[in-house]
Design goal:
- By secondary structure, the protein is an alpha/beta fold.
- It contains 31 helices and 28 strands.
- The protein folds into 4 domains: 202 residues, no CATH class; 329 residues, Thiamin diphosphate (ThDP)-binding fold, Pyr/PP domains (Rossmann fold, 3-Layer(aba) Sandwich); 217 residues, Rossmann fold (3-Layer(aba) Sandwich); 128 residues, Multifunctional 2-oxoglutarate metabolism enzyme, C-terminal domain (Rossmann fold).
- The strands form 7 sheets. Strands 3-10-11-9-8-4-7-6 form an 8-stranded mixed β-sheet, with helices on both faces. It has a 7-stranded mixed β-sheet with strand order 17-14-18-19-21-20-26, sandwiched between helices.
- Helix 11 packs across helix 21.
Length: 1010
C-alpha cells in the first residue's frame, strides 16, 4: 500500500538514530566517511554545541574526519563551523530534554550563508538539515515496522503508531513540506535528482519502506552491503516489470494455484499440505533460480518442510506430474524401501531452464515432518558438491532453504545452521532462505509461539538482510526475489525472504481452523486469492484480457488432466524416481556381495606412520610444543617396532584411503587435537598465530584431500551437515566425532529421522561414521555412556532369526542392516572397520563406540601383522589364551564388548583363572555375529555363559544381545546370564567411590566360578 506524506506533518525527527550526510538547500551533499571511527581533535571548542544531539554526533564526527582530509568535501556551512569552533565532541546530553525545533522558513534558512563564506551558520540551519538526514535514516532503520506486509491486515501496525516509531520529536508546518533539501549520498530515492522537496522525500520513503516490502538491513555491519541494498530498494522505477514479465508472472501464479486446485478437485479428502494462501512461493523460487542461473549457478539444492512440497516438485523442479499423482494412488513399490508419505519425498532433476536457456540441476532433499531438520543436511550436500567441483566461491552450487514461520522461530537447528554459515569449513557461500509465512503454527497464534517481533529475527545474528514482503503483491515479491539472488551472488552471504501470506485451510486440508482462529478465518473466507487479485490488476492495466487469463488457467488444467490419466495407468510406483542423491555409476558393474580387501602392504603402513610421526619438513622453522615432540617420538618408536595404538591406527586408515584416492573428512568439536589429546592431526606453531601443519594432508603428492576441522559447539547442526556431505559422494570417508559420546543425544533427531531410517524411507544410502567416546570411568553421568542401547534399538535385524550360515554371510548381513554398531577393542580392528566403510559395495552408516582410557592403555596395541593383506575386520574375537586350548575344562564363557575386556582379563590373570574362564569379544554388535557366537557357544558347550558389561542393565548392549544369544543357543535349554551394574535411570553415578564399588562388584561377579 502506497502512502502519502499526510501523516508525517505531526512528526519529523531531527534526532533519530542515523543521518548519513548533512546537506543544505543551496549546497552539495556532504559525503559520510565509510568509517564510523571519527577523528576527534584534542583542542577544546568555544562553540556551544548543546543543540547537537548525541545520536547525530557520529555523523558530525564523520564529516569532521572528511573535512580534515579535504575541507571541500563538506558543505561551506560545515567548513565554516569546523574552522571557527575547533570542533570537539558534543557534551553529554543524557539529562537534557530533546529539542523540539520548528522548521519554519527553511527555504531561506541559508540565505545569509554564501558558498565559501566563513560566517557561522545558525543552529536552526544545522538542526533542520540534521533532521532531514536523520528522517531518511529512520525510514531505512524502522520503516519495516509500518510496512503493509500482511495481506489479511491483521498484523499491519496502526499507521499513526508506526510513524511515531519512525519519525518523531519535530513539529512540521505545511509550509515546511515544500522546502527543498539536498539529498545525501546515503539515499537513492532521488534517482538523478540531487534535491527534493520535503513532501516528496517523505512520500518516496513511504513508498519504498512502508509499502508491500519491509526490509531489515541497517543492522548489517558492512557499509558496502548496506549501501548496495539501499540502492536497489530506493532507486526510482526499480520495482517496475515489463508487460512480458508481468504475463510470465501471471502464468507462474496460475500454475501454482492451478496445481493446488487440481489436487483439491481430485483428492479432496487427502492430506497434501497445500500452498493456498502463499501461492507466490512458486514464482518466488522460480525467479530466484532464474536469476541465480544468470549469475552462473548450475546446481541448486533445496530443503523444505512438507507444506507446498508437491507444488515445488511439480512447478519448480518440473518433476513429471504423473509421478507425483501416483503417490495418491496407494500403489505398491516396485523397488526397495518402505517409502514415506508423499509430502516428505525428494527428487533430483537435470533440465534446461527455459527462462535462461541454461542447464540447471535441482535437488529437493527428502525430509521428515521434523520441520527444520533438513537445513544442515542441505548445507552439507552443497558444501560437498562445491568441494568436488572446486567451487570455492560458491558460484556454481547454491543452497535454498524453505521454512515455515513457526518452525523458523522455534527450532534451534535454524540457529545452529545459521551459525555455521561463515565458518571456513562449513560455509556454502550464502544460502537463500524463504519463509512461507502463513502467520500461524499448527493451531498456535504467533503471539504465543515466539518472543521476537518477527519469526525471522534469528537471522540477524549473522547480519543477514531480511525482506518481509506481502504475498498478495506479486510484483513486490519479484523485486525482492531479484535482490535476494543478486545479494547472494554478490556477497556470498545468507539472505532471508519472509513471504507473508496466510493458510487458507487448517493445518491440513481436512482440519477445522475455526476452532482456534475464528477471527482470522472469517477474514480468510472473504479474501480473494492472489491469482484473482493479480489477474484483475493486469486486466485493469490492459496488459492481458480476461480471455487470455482464462486460457492460461485452462492450459495448465489440461496438462494436469493428461498426467492424471497417465498416472491411472501405472500399476506400481518406483522409489528411484524420488532419489535426491543419485550416485551415478557407483552400483553399476559391482558384485553386490563382494567387498574389497581392507589389509594394506607394510611399506604403506611404514611410510604413513613415519610421516605422521614427524613434524613439518622445515621443522627448524616450525616450533612444536615440547609435549608434542615427546608424542611424535613415541609414535615413531611404535612404527619402528611395528606396533600401533588407537591414534596411529586411525591415521593409518585415513592415510591409506587417501593414497587410494578416497577423500577423508573428519569433523566435530576439537577433532584436530582430539578431546583426549590423542590425535594431534594439526600441529600449531608455538610462536606464530595461524601457522599449522597437517601431516596426513602431506603424505603423497597425488593423494586425495584430507579435511580435519573443528566444528562449532553443535551436535544437531553439525551431524546433519556431515550426513549431507556423506550423501553427495560415496567415494569419501566422512566422520563426525562427539566431544563425549553422551553429547550425541542432542543430534538424536538426525539419527532417528535420517541415519537409521534414510535408506528405508528414501532409498538414500550414507557411509557416514559417528565416533562416540564411550566408557564408564567414574566421570559422572554426562561423560560416560554414548548410549549404545539407543543405536542398537534402532538396528533393524530380527533377534529371533538365525541367518543361514553360508558363503558371504558377513556381507549379506551388512547389506540387509540399516546401520552398523561396533565397539572395537583393538586398534587393528578400528583400522579395518574404517577401511571397510569404503571397501563395501554399498554404504551403511557406522556407529563406533570409541575408547577414552584405552587410547593410552599399554595392552591396547596391535601389530602391523594384523593389518597386512589377507587380514580383515574381526566381527568377534574369541579367547586365544589357555582357555581356548582346553575348552572342556572351561567353567565360564564371558561375552563382552569394548573396554571392559581389559578389566576382565586383568582380573582373570590376577586370580589365576586363565584356563577356567574364556572371554570372547563382540566387536560388531549390530548386525549380530550369529555365526561366530555359535562357534564359541559350541566350543564351550559345558561352560556357564554370561554377558558382562560395565553399563547398567537397562543400558548398554545387554538388552539387544540377550535375545540374539538365546537364538544362537537354539532356544532356552541353555541360558545366558547378565553380569554388570543394576538398572538405573542415570547412565552413571557422580560419586567416584560408588563407581568403584559398582565396578568391583561387577568384576567379582564375572570372576565367580562355581
Amino acid at each position: 500500500m502506497h502512502r502519502t506524506a499526510t501523516g508525517t506533518r505531526r512528526a519529523l525527527s531531527s534526532l533519530v538514530r542515523g543521518g548519513g550526510v548533512v546537506t543544505t538547500p543551496h549546497g552539495t551533499a556532504s559525503p559520510v566517511h565509510k568509517s564510523y571511527l571519527a577523528l576527534r581533535p584534542a583542542s577544546s571548542s568555544s562553540v556551544d554545541e548543546s543543540h547537537l544531539s548525541g545520536t547525530a554526533a557520529p555523523y558530525i564526527e564523520e564529516m569532521y574526519e572528511s573535512w580534515t582530509v579535504d575541507p571541500k568535501s563538506v558543505h561551506a556551512s560545515w567548513d565554516a563551523y569546523f574552522r571557527g569552533s575547533h570542533y570537539t565532541p558534543p557534551p553529554n546530553l543524557a539529562n537534557t530534554k530533546a529539542n523540539e525545533i520548528p522548521l519554519s522558513a527553511l527555504a531561506g534558512a541559508f540565505s545569509g550563508v554564501e558558498m565559501g563564506s566563513s560566517a557561522k551558520p545558525s543552529s536552526k540551519v544545522i538542526d533542520a538539515h540534521l533532521a532531514v538526514q536523520a528522517t531518511i535514516r529512520s525510514y531505512q532503520v524502522r520503516g519495516h515496522l509500518a510496512a503493509q506486509t500482511d495481506p489479511l491486515n491483521l498484523n499491519n501496525m496502526n499507521r499513526d503508531d508506526a510513524q511515531k516509531l519512525i519519525i518523531r520529536s519535530v513539529t512540521v508546518q505545511e509550509a515546511d513540506m515544500d522546502s527543498v533539501f539536498q539529498l545525501p549520498s546515503t539515499t537513492w530515492i532521488g534517482g538523478k535528482e540531487k534535491a527534493l522537496p520535503l513532501r516528496e522525500i517523505i512520500t518516496r520513503l513511504e513508498n519504498v519502506y512502508c509499502g508491500s516490502i519491509g526490509v531489515e538491513f541497517m543492522h548489517i555491519h558492512d557499509l558496502d552491503q548496506v549501501n548496495w541494498i539501499r540502492e536497489r530498494m530506493e532507486t526510482p522505477g526499480s520495482l517496475k516489470l515489463s508487460n512480458d514479465q508481468k504475463r510470465l508472472l501471471l502464468a507462474r501464479i496460475s500454475r501454482s494455484a492451478g496445481f493446488e486446485n487440481f489436487l483439491a478437485k481430485k483428492w479432496s479428502s487427502e492430506k497434501r499440505f497445500g500452498l493456498e494462501g502463499v501461492e507466490m512461493l512458486i514464482p518466488c523460487m522460480k525467479q530466484i533460480v532464474d536469476k541465480s542461473t544468470d549469475f552462473g549457478v548450475e546446481s541448486v539444492v533445496m530443503g523444505m518442510p512438507h507444506r507446498g512440497r508437491l507444488n515445488v516438485l511439480a512447478n519448480v523442479c518440473r518433476k513429471p506430474l504423473e509421478q507425483i499423482f501416483t503417490q495418491f494412488a496407494g500403489l505398491e513399490a516396485a523397488d526397495e524401501g518402505s517409502g514415506d508419505v508423499k509430502y516428505h519425498l525428494g527428487t533430483y532433476i537435470e533440465r534446461l531452464n527455459r527462462a535462461t536457456n541454461k542447464n540447471i540441476r535441482l535437488a529437493v532433499v527428502a525430509n521428515p515432518s521434523h520441520l527444520e531438520a533438513v537445513n544442515p543436511i542441505v548445507e552439507g550436500k552443497v558444501k560437498a558438491e562445491q568441494f568436488y567441483r572446486g567451487d570455492t566461491e560458491g558460484k556454481k552450487v547454491m543452497s535454498m532453504l524453505l521454512h515455515g514461520d513457526a518452525a523458523f522461530a522455534g527450532q534451534g537447528v535454524v540457529y545452529e545452521t545459521f551459525h555455521m554459515s561463515e565458518l571456513p569449513e562449513y560455509t556454502t557461500q550464502g544460502t537463500i532462505h524463504i519463509v512461507a509465512n502463513n502467520q500461524i503454527g499448527f493451531t498456535t497464534d504467533p503471539r504465543f509461539s515466539r518472543s521476537s517481533p518477527y519469526c525471522t529475527d534469528v537471522a540477524r545474528v549473522v547480519n543477514a538482510p531480511i525482506f518481509h514482503v506481502n504475498a498478495d503483491d506479486p510484483e513486490a515479491v519479484m523485486h525482492v526475489s531479484n535482490i535476494a539472488a543478486e545479494y547472494r551472488s554478490t556477497f556470498h552471504k545468507d539472505v532471508v525472504v519472509d513471504l507473508i501470506g496466510y493458510r487458507k485451510f487448517g493445518h491440513n486440508e481436512i482440519d477445522e481452523p475455526m476452532f482456534t482462529q475464528p477471527i482470522m478465518y472469517q477474514i480468510i473466507k472473504k479474501h480473494k486469492n492472489v491469482l484473482d487479485i493479480y489477474s484483475k490488476k493486469l486486466i485493469d492495466e490492459g496488459v492481458v484480457t480476461k480471455d487470455e487469463v482464462d486460457a492460461v488457467i485452462d492450459k495448465y488444467d489440461k496438462i494436469c488432466e493428461e498426467a492424471y490419466k497417465k498416472a491411472g495407468e501405472e500399476k506400481q510406483t518406483y522409489h528411484k524416481h524420488w532419489l535426491d542423491s543419485p550416485w551415478s555409476g557407483f552400483f553399476e558393474g559391482k558384485d553386490p556381495m563382494k567387498g574389497s580387501p581392507t589389509g594394506v602392504h607394510e611399506e604403506t603402513l611404514t611410510h604413513i606412520g613415519k610421516r605422521f610421526s614427524s613434524g613439518p619438513p622445515n621443522a627448524g622453522d616450525f616450533k612444536i610444543h615440547r609435549g608434542l615432540e615427546r608424542i611424535l617420538k613415541s609414535r615413531m618408536e611404535m612404527v619402528e617396532n611395528r606396533q600401533i595404538d588407537w591414534a596411529l591406527s586411525e591415521a593409518l586408515a585415513f592415510g591409506s584411503l587417501m593414497k587410494e584416492g578416497i577423500h577423508v573428512r573428519l569433523s566435530g568439536q576439537d577433532v584436530e587435537r582430539g578431546t583426549f589429546s590423542h590425535r594431534h592431526h594439526v600441529l600449531h606453531h608455538q610462536t606464530k598465530d595461524m601457522s599449522t601443519y597437517n601431516a596426513l594432508a602431506n603424505l603423497y603428492p597425488d593423494q586425495a584431500p584430507y579435511s580435519v576441522c573443528n566444528s562449532s559447539l553443535s551436535e544437531y547442526g553439525v551431524v546433519g551437515f556431515e550426513l549431507g556431505y556423506s550423501m553427495t559422494n560415496p567415494n569419501a570417508l566422512v566422520l563426525w566425532e562427539a566431544q563425549f559420546g553422551d553429547f550425541s543425544n542432542t543430534a538424536q533427531c538426525i539419527i532417528d529421522q535420517f541415519i537409521s531410517s534414510g535408506q528405508a524411507k528414501w532409498v538414500r544410502q550414507s557411509g557416514m561414521v559417528m565416533l562416540l567416546p564411550h566408557g564408564m570411568e567414574g566421570m559422572g553421568p554426562e561423560h560416560s555412556s554414548a548410549r549404545p542401547e539407543r543405536f542398537l534399538q534402532l538396528s533393524a535385524d530380527d533377534p529371533e532369526y538365525f541367518p543361514p550360515i553360508e558363503d558371504e554371510f558377513e556381507i549379506k548381513q551388512l547389506s540387509h542392516i540399516n546401520m552398523i554398531v561396533a565397539n572395537c577393542s583393538t586398534p587393528a580392528n578400528y583400522f579395518h572397520i574404517l577401511r571397510r566403510q569404503i571397501a563395501l559395495p554399498f554404504r551403511k552408516p557406522l556407529i563406533v563406540m570409541t575408547p577414552k582410557s584405552l587410547l593410552r592403555h599399554p595392552e591396547c596395541r596391535s601389530s602391523f601383522d594384523e593389518m597386512l593383506p589377507n587380514t580383515n575386520f574381526r566381527r568377534a574375537i574369541p579367547d586365544e589364551g589357555p582357555a581356548s586350548e582346553n575348552s572342556e575344562g572351561v567353567k565360564k564363557l564371558i561375552f563382552c564388548t569394548g573396554k571392559v575386556y581389559y578389566d576382565l582379563i586383568k582380573a582373570r590373570r590376577d586370580q589365576g583363572l586363565d584356563d577356567k574362564i574364556a572371554i570372547s569379544r563382540i566387536e560388531q554388535i549390530s548386525p549380530f555375529p550369529f555365526d561366530l557366537v555359535k562357534m564359541d557357544l559350541d566350543k564351550y558347550s559345558n561352560a556357564e555363559v554370561v554377558f558382562a558389561q560395565e553399563e547398567h542393565k537397562n543400558q548398554g548392549a545387554w538388552t539387544y544381545c540377550q535375545p540374539r544369544f538365546q537364538t544362537a543357543m537354539g532356544g532356552y535349554d541353555r541360558r545366558i546370564n547378565y553380569v554388570g551394574r543394576e538398572v538405573a535411570p542415570s547412565p552413571a553415578t557422580g560419586s567416584k567411590a560408588q563407581h568403584n564399588k559398582e565396578f568391583k562388584a561387577m568384576i567379582s561377579d564375572a570372576m565367580n566360578v562355581s
